[in-house]
Amino acid sequence: MKPIAFARAETVDQALAAVTARPNTVFLAGGTTLVDMLRIGAMEPDNVVDINRLPLTDLEHRPDGGLRIGAMVRMSEVAADPGVVERFPFLSIALAKGASAQIRNMASMGGNLMQRVRCPQFRDIAYACNKRDPGSGCGAQEGLHRGNAVLGTSEHCFAMHPSDMAIPLTALDAVVQVQGPRGTRAIAFDDFFLLPGDTPHLEHPITADELIVRIDVPPLPFARNSHYLKVRDRESYEFAAASAAVALELTDGVVRDVRIGLGGVATKPWRAKMAEALLIGKPATKENFAAAAATELAAADSSHEMNRFKIELAQRTMVRTLETVTAQISQRGGRK
Length: 336
What we know:
This protein is an alpha+beta fold. It has 12 helices and 12 strands. Helix 10 (273-279) packs antiparallel against helix 11 and helix 11 (286-296) packs antiparallel against helix 12 (309-331).
């Protein structure tokens, strides 16, 4: 490993100044991804800036019913917050399903959004990887690719985005607030994650001298009726083979509104907009759920043998999650 300079920032301005002064700089929050990347040589910064002391640790329930989450709030804190458990249960569940308890206690909300993919070829410098080394090729095309994506792929990359918590956040239309030398700007959650296209090394629209300062979640009253289902090879310490985050509003058994996010199957947190549009105004039946899921996955990439199973698995996961939330609403007597 090459020598790396280290600095600790006490304020956001100090952190941004450190990045401006030394271009090839990365921020260290919980370090649960960054330290791994440094060890295996997948990332080689010149400078690391510790931002753990930044005053970005507020978790605020807004008067309008929204939620404001500081970038340095730990995942475990948000998962256990009574207001989140009550008003955004699928976010609480997704956070609790991610990684181990030790990692959740250390990992920050902002850091989770910036985590790198788990594609074996990305994390093994012996293989070509367009994400790690632009233009070098994609070693996963012929190598081990069981865990990779079937939605949002390109010929240059089909690495799966690994975050659990990002799946309900995309369903919630969250907004990422970033700060840099040119001021603060808001980025819609769906725009914060870029499809690989022919530039898979570009994962986010933020520049190297910008820092996530908070995540804003707008109010969504029917998010009380929500669930996150994660299907994986083993019950703990494993990334999703497929997952679904669903919030549902029913009136007399008919879908009045719905939000659906898919994980484990796409190159970014995937908002199932086609499925949502198909379900609104339809009876909440298994047949309609299945039709919506099939429509969403119709364009999935089936060209890779090892991960082709994810297409059907994603459909089943979406249907099961919709059924689960429908049953929850029914058990509460149809209350919204």
